[in-house]
Design goal:
This protein has helices at 2-12, 27-37, 87-97, and strands spanning 41-44, 52-58, 63-69, 75-83, 99-102, 105-110, 113-121, 125-132. By secondary structure, the chain is an alpha+beta fold. Strand 3 and strand 4 form a beta hairpin. The chain is 25% helix and 40% strand. The protein has an eight-stranded antiparallel beta sheet with strand order 1-2-3-4-8-7-6-5, covered by helices on one side. The chain has one domain.
């Protein structure tokens, strides 16, 4: 039931591309969501002894999506790394679906929780982080 409600919210808010906030989703829910909704993103099996995460990349390697998981395999934050050429597209997307709170910062308010979306410029890419407001 939780998944159906979330899909309804995502559809009603007009979310496109990869701005989805999947914080709070369990490992299996993320895998299922990505398989059903983002067939252009490839799952990459990763192994890391310090933290657990899911990694997806698109075919051209212009976008990487990381879902960081807590010890209970629940997503605690999301990080997207995009080619710099996609920055304007991402800013427009976020401006259309989230509340802008500052330079390259937005708030996603849902289910009584606030999530900070922050875009940072790196040398060759831009990095987008989604995490609960602390």
């Amino acid at each position: 039931m939780r998944i159906i409600a979330l899909f309804a919210v995502l559809i009603l808010t007009g979310i496109s591309s990869y701005g989805q906030n999947l914080v709070g989703y369990k490992y299996e829910e993320i895998r299922k969501y990505m398989k059903q909704n983002h067939t252009d993103m490839n799952y990459n099996k990763v192994s890391n002894s310090k933290f657990k995460y899911l990694k997806y990349t698109n075919g051209s390697d212009s976008q990487t999506l990381l879902f960081f998981l807590n010890p209970d395999s629940v997503c605690s934050s999301v990080r997207m790394i995009c080619d710099m050429g996609l920055k304007a597209e991402k800013e427009n997307e976020f401006n259309s679906i989230y509340e802008k709170t500052g330079e390259n910062k937005w708030i996603d308010r849902r289910s009584g929780n606030d999530y900070l979306i922050e875009l940072k410029d790196e040398k060759w890419s831009c990095e987008i982080t989604i995490e609960p407001v602390k």
